[in-house]
Amino acid sequence: MRVALFITCINDALYPRTGRAVVTLLERLGVEVGFPAAQSCCGQPQFNTGYHSEAAPLARRYADAFHGYDHVVVPSGSCAAMVRDNYPRIDEEATREAVAGTYELTEFLVDVLGVTDVGAYYPHTVTYHPTCHGLRMLGLGDRPRRLLQAVKGLRLVELEGAEECCGFGGTFAVKNPDVSAAMGADKARHIEETDAETVCTVDNSCLMHIGGTLSRRGSATRPVHIAEILAGTEEAPL
Amino acid sequence: MSGTYLGMPSFPKAAAASTRDMRLRGNLRHATGTIRAKRAQAVSELGDWDGLRSAGAALKDRTLRHLDRYLVQLESAVTAAGGQVHWARDAEEANRIVTDLVRETGETDVVKVKSMATQEIGLNDALAKAGISAYETDLAELIVQLGDDLPSHILVPAIHRNRDQIRDIFRERMGDWGRAAPRGLSDDPSELAEAARLHLREKFLDAKVGISGANFMVAETGTLVVVESEGNGRMCLTLPETLISVVGIEKTVPTWQDLEVFLQTLPRSSTAERMNPYTSTWTGTTDEDGPSVFHLVLLDNGRTDALADTVGRQALRCIRCSACLNVCPVYERAGGHAYGSAYPGPIGAILTPQLRGVQSELDASLPYASSLCGACYEVCPVAIDIPEVLVHLRERVSEGGTVSVRGRKTTIEPAKGHAAERAVMRAARWAFDHPRALRTGQRLASRARRLTPRRLPLPGPGRAWSDSRDLPRPAPESFRDWWRRTRGEEAPAEGRLEGGDG
Ligand code: SF4
């Protein structure tokens, strides 16, 4: 099985720890991973803002960069959804193979590798925010929660209004700053009410918005990508 | 607020004000939160919800594909049943037809049952200009009218008002329009409802002309259908001598049997009821029963143009249940007025720019009034992929393209004010398409990371972000660099990307 990592632009520049955690985790599970250097952004900002002609070359670049691998694993729900939902709308023929092989990380673990207990250790209270793209476009269902529940030492606490959007929405956060901030504030308040030490998601872009809001409010809760939780073990806590 | 949506500011500007209105936010949070939970319960009772949903979507799609045929069938059925059919190309024409029809009766007062189509065309204003007073008889619509306000929700037009506010409006304004509110009226819901009932009863008994909309029009028999909760519609449809129904052409269904699906999905999606209290149907005229004169005004007003758009046309499936508004986190914070049309919320964000075009600043901003979270698509009983249409319309705004305007193919330019954004998107795409340049940029950013502030002092998109959130800092070493340092460079899998990266 040849598995390639797709480390999205936000992960690459702002949250490289997430990518490193994915490498640690997958290699611990016996997967051989590659990182094709020709990869770049999935084109989501361009596509979702309406610049479809700008997104097209990036979609084709993606298909080329990952050509020849059995699977592509992405630690980002929204980028996986971009590839699976929107690439066929951009260029179905050129991207068909890449689209079929692309998995969000938790999907890959549960559906392809068939594991829910990845041998992780994380002795903290955690609350989980199911991001919109993971929840509704990819239909991740309870996969992330099942993975979290199997983590040793981890206590998972419920988040009120969990399924409501955090207000990020890519360029939405910039184009509609007031509504976005109002949504973010409500999300942050619900997170604070859980008293969790950590809030986790499958998407660093949402975490950037949630984390930025929590930080501005002086909250103690830390935003952490699910890969980082799953990568830590008792011998090598992350 | 005056009775028109014309000249309203763009969505973000209007929303900036409404997000700060804590009373409005409270009213909306309470109202939408309650209905949301009830709807989920009502829907979960049906084992075949998904089947009904796809059946509804398929039915509407098929009807829309052959709409020309069904409309002709509808016209002849209505005519055969003693009604008269009028075709209105746009708002102006529809308003003129209705005004002339009312004038012919010699009346200056009409009663109305809530109708989105007449809101859309601004009929009340047009009638007022002709010296005709139109009285809204839906409770929420009455509150809006007395308050000199605009509707802000499809089903509950006065959702932005709470009981206190309604009591004040009734006390202060009812007397100007007819029977005044009883002395000492409190904010008790049953007292408020009774005050409205007494006020409206006079109107119903006096009215010689009624104006309505319709939820459905059955082509095979020429029957119109109104689904409602209060019974005011039934009064408007039966007591007056003349009935004028103004209905969008997309409300057509081929047969009575088709109603089976929608009469299950509509009430559950809108009011979370298994069945709505009143379903009224009327077919032409009947001797000595109900109105003796019946006019049907079939409204286009941009609908055939929407129909010409293969992605956007799904918006015409909408059965106006308002479920998408009630789940929308953006609607909940911004309120319905910010959408600047009779159709607020997610459906408004995709319907209005299709009906009116994307030329005005407001209409061009509507497709962006969403975080694309997809909650609206999930609840829509006719499975309209609202996020798909939003993104499609964003392309129309930012890149222009070919659209149908009054039935003619026309090429439109990108909307104004998008040049800077286009440049940014293009530059970003260029960088992403040249990973080597991207890496250089990332390294520079990493080196300067300590200089990156958490808040930005200057105006611009970054400022909008950092007004409420701390900015993330670039990492000291990107993943790409870490991989290369620890694992070495990996060649493109089969060398298909020549020269992409060094
Ligand atoms: S778009 Fe769908 S959910 Fe929204 S009002 Fe129309 S039918 Fe209801």
From TrEMBL, chain A:
InterPro entries: Cys_rich_dom
Superkingdom to which the source organism belongs: Bacteria
Positions of the Cysteine-rich domain: 3-83, 126-210
Pfam families: CCG (PF02754)
Protein name: (Fe-S)-binding protein
Organism field: Streptomyces marispadix
Organism lineage: Bacteria, Bacillati, Actinomycetota, Actinomycetes, Kitasatosporales
TrEMBL record, chain B:
Domain 4Fe-4S ferredoxin-type: 315-384
SUPFAM superfamilies for this protein: 4Fe-4S ferredoxins, NagB/RpiA/CoA transferase-like
Protein name stated in the entry: Lactate utilization protein
Pfam family of the protein (one): LutB_C
Alphabetical UniProt keywords: 4Fe-4S, Electron transport, Iron, Iron-sulfur, Metal-binding, Repeat, Transport
Boundaries of every Lactate utilization protein B C-terminal domain copy: 409-485
Organism from which the protein derives: Streptomyces marispadix
Segments for region (Disordered): 453-502
UniProt biased composition (Basic and acidic residues): 466-502
Domain LUD residue range list: 73-285
Biased composition (Low complexity): 454-464
